[in-house]
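Q: Could you write out the predicted structure for this multi-component system? I'm mainly interested in how the pieces pack against one another.
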Amino acid sequence: MWRAALQLLSTWAIPLAVAGIPLVALARKRQVYPAFLEGAREGFETAVRVIPPLVAVVVALGMFKASGALDDLARALSPLTSALGLPAPVLPLVIVRPLSGGAALGVVADVLRSEGPDSHAGRLASVMAGSTETTLYVLAVYMGAARITRYRYALAAGLLADAAGFAAAALVVRAYFG
Amino acid sequence: MSVLWTLLVVASVATAAAHGRMTELTAAIASSAQSAVTLALGLVGVMALWMGLMRVAEQAGLVALLARALRPVLRRLFRGVPDGHPALGAIVMNVSANVLGLGNAATPFGVDAMRRLEELNPHPGTATDAQALLCVLNTASLQLVPATVIALRAAAGARDPADVVGPVVLASACGVATAIAAAKLLARFFPAPKPSAEPS
């Protein structure tokens, strides 16, 4: 049942947004087209801005893999990763995700390239990245804005949420895609 | 990140030396740099389309609409904030913008909320429960449609780039639920200092 619901959401979410949003805006007599262009320019800039971190991370990961270091690490950690059902190429994502959004994107891009977007690892990396946030960056910006230096439990709770997101991603991807 | 990145690169060169794979390493450096740019350029189209749409949604008042729906829920979560205080309005806008994936719009609201909550803070410099909860909510993924991930998958040639939307929503919900539960639970173990005990 929930599988069918998720499938429906996956196939309908985007077309519905693409048609529905301009329709609502037009019904409310807003300037649809200029607003779209303004946002699209911002999206273009975001995509271009992400190139430097993407190059840095994809190159570092490419080197890590070509040198055989990832195989070594995966072998050393295999008892742990196989218990969690985590493919080796996805491993760096767990470490990098809370630290840097651009770097996490780089890891996902690398997994999609080397394992394929429709592989188990590719889907898992996509869902893991999509269902978590750059915890440390968010904390630094928000707490910094209010000049707070003692975070109390905020970091622990944020990292717990990331861990829960990762675990849920592993379970859902296995159950959903089989 | 500086340490991590340098460590990764240095460890790679050292391992390649140990395994005698320097030629492969050199080839990988050039090919991955190029593929990073190819991927990023593939992102441009979908990102521009999506952020354009989201700007239209913002203009159409969809953020305000969502805010009205979320207000009662958030008021219950942020008990320490007096009803009608401007901080609550900023929190509601922050969460609504996040749900729609308007990261650039969400941050100013969030920062504003943090500053206004600080005005209510009896011990400045130490996070209140409301401030911690707002931060923790923002460190979980509230976004409904993972536009960047879909764009990356499209650029990588996925058969159905959006087939991860359903699983992402479900996994995100688990993350958000954990964030709220963890914040509420941990608040008991990390009591806020007494105002008088705090030397300013």
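A: Regarding packing and overall arrangement: Chain A touches chain B through 111 residues (CB under 8 Å).
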